[in-house]
Design brief:
Number of helices: 4
Order of helices and strands: EHEEHEEHHEE
Strand content: 25-35%
Structural class: alpha+beta
Radius of gyration: 14 Å
Shape: globular
Number of strands: 7
Largest sheet: 4 strands, antiparallel
Number of domains: 1
Strand order of the largest sheet: 2-3-6-5
Low-confidence stretches: none
Mean pLDDT: 89
């Protein structure tokens, strides 16, 4: 499965070399990814809660069983998320134990500029 993670350019080389740290997001502690390049790009430039100075995407190739949707994690989609249902259908999470210092290190990672489409 091909997915995209948004990050700052300054952090991308560390992610490519050492893997991802997790973070709290909408439904779990982990790494958040999109299955749609265009949705990820829109999120990078249009999300009022995350102000990226110089965003890039990390392309990740993983088996489907390595990620879950928020609906799969929670067992439902909260009613107040309904207006953004389409967005959440394209968001996947690789859950990480928040108490670990280990990083998630998928084998196939590459940096992708927002100005190029895959």
């Amino acid at each position: 499965m091909r997915l995209w993670h948004i990050t700052e350019r300054e952090w991308a080389s560390d992610i490519l070399k050492r893997g991802f740290y997790g973070n709290w997001g909408d439904c779990a502690f982990g790494v958040y990814l999109f299955d749609s390049w265009s949705m990820a790009a829109d999120w990078a430039v249009g999300n009022p809660n995350m102000k990226y100075e110089d965003p890039v995407m990390i392309e990740v190739q993983v088996p489907r069983e390595d990620v879950e949707t928020c609906e799969e994690i929670l067992g439902y989609l909260p009613p107040d998320w309904e207006p953004e249902r389409e967005k959440y259908e394209h968001v996947f999470v690789h859950e990480i134990d928040e108490d670990t210092k280990d990083r998630w290190r998928p084998k196939n990672l590459k940096m992708v500029e927002l100005t190029s489409t895959p």
